[in-house]
Amino acid sequence: MKLLIADDDPQLVRALRITLGAHGYDVVEASDGAAAITSAAQARPDIILLDLGMPQLDGIQVIQALRGWTNAPIIVVSGRTGSADKVEALDAGADDYVTKPFQIDELLARLRALSRRTPGSTGESVVSFGDVVVDLASKSVARDGHRVHLTPTEWRMLEHLARNPGALVTRQDLLKEIWGSDQVTDSGYLRLYMSQLRKKLEASPAEPVHLLTESGMGYRLVL
Q1: 95: which DSSP letter?
Q2: Please, what CATH class does the domain formed by 152-221 belong to?
Q3: Is the pLDDT of residue 121 over 50?
Q4: Would you list the domain boundaries of the chain?
C-alpha cells in the first residue's frame, strides 16, 4: 500500500519512513504543501499523512485541494491539540486526526482501520475536453497550452462540473457549492458565470459542445 507523508520535519519523516516501510508500506515524501499536492497527483497514494503547519500551503489548503479530485483517506498528524484545529481539519475533508507526539502502534491501528474502510481509489486529477485541460490538483486551466485566468467563482463552478463529468449538476447543487447555501436564489448569476466560462473555454461560445445547459434543471460538462 502506498503512503504519502507530508511533513516539514525531516527527522519525523525519516523515522516514519523506516518504521512504516518495515510494516510493508511504500512511502512517498513531501516537505511542503505544494509538494504534497504534486506528489499526491503523481504517486496516487492509498493513504495520506499530513501535517497542518507546513510551508508553501498549510494543511487545510492542501486538504481542500486534494478533496477536489481524490477520496484517498487523509490522516492529519499535527502538534496542534485544540479542538478548533481538529474540527477545521475534519470539516475540510480529513478522515482522522492524530496529535503529536503519538505512539506508532496507535498510528498503525488507524492506518489499518482506514485501509479496511476505504478502498483508496482516487479520481483523476486532470480533466480534458476539446483543447482545454483542467488540473484539479493545482486549480489551473489551460487552453491550447496557454493558461486561462478564471475568477474564483468561475473556477468553483467549473471545478464542480469537472468533478462530475457527464452528469447533470443541478442549479441548486451549484448554488450550494459556490455560495455555501442551497437557499440562495439564482437570479441569473449562474447563467452569467456559465456565459463567461463558455467565452473562455468553448470554441464557439454561442454553440457550446462541452458546457451544456439542461433547460430547467442545470448544467452538464461533456468531455
Answers
A1: S
A2: mainly alpha
A3: no
A4: 2-117, 152-221
| DSSP per-residue codes, 147-194 | E----HHHHHHHHHHHTSTTSEEEHHHHHHHHHS-TTS--TTHHHHHH
8 A C-beta contact, residue 220 and residue 167: yes
Q: For 179-190, give the secondary structure using H, E and C.
A: HCCCCCCCCCHH
Top CATH class of 2-117 equals alpha beta
**Rounded distance between C-alpha atoms, residue 89 and residue 215, angstroms:** 38
List, for residues 149-192, the tens digit of each pLDDT value.
Answer: 998 889 989 998 998 888 888 888 888 877 765 556 666 889 99
pLDDT in tens, 82-103: 888 888 998 888 988 998 888 8
Who wins on pLDDT, 36 or 138?
Answer: 36
pLDDT, tens only, 6-35: 999 999 999 999 999 999 899 999 999 999
Measured in degrees and rounded to the nearest 5, phi and psi for residue 167 equal -95, 150
How far apart, in whole angstroms, are the C-alpha atoms of residue 209 and residue 221? 9
Sequence length of the chain is 223
End-to-end Cα separation, the chain, in angstroms: 32
**How many CB atoms neighbour CB 11 within 10 A?**
8
